[in-house]
Amino acid sequence: MKKYFLSAIFTIVTILGVSAQDYKWWIDGRTTLWAGEDETVVVIAPEIGYHLNQKFTVAASLGFHSYDYDDDIIPGQDISGLVLNPYLRYTAFKKGILFGYVDGGVEFGLGDIEGVQVGLKPGIAVAITNRFCVALQFGFLGYSDGKVLGARSKGFGLDLSGYQSGLAFFYSF
Question: What is the average pLDDT value for the chain, to the nearest integer?
Fold first, then answer.
């Protein structure tokens, strides 16, 4: 069993080493830790992506979400679960170190936050170095069944709230 495990690790490291010269892969993640008087929020969502070409990237994140509310404020509303988010990123423009993109994808909630959200999320990014990038994602345009993360009611629409915004640091390899 150890031989197979070590062989698999060696193969993965070799493949990543070969593709590291082109910086085809990237990783990032999202973490939220918030402890307020009325709620405690924990989100851990690692993400990985692969550049198909100059314009398109496929990626996915799998995150653990936990929302613990004060029972005096919102009784019985403690929720937790996994959120799977596969998406396709389109790079709309690139000007020097600045580029704009749109993510088109689906979010599936599992556990207490079961549900689905389908739509577009625009963003803008700055390449700090060849390997590091900072991105700001803002807004959502699409459909939500009103269950995923409990963010909105069922329907189609545009959401420019802070809930749909985020700052990310990408590492390419």
Answer: 80
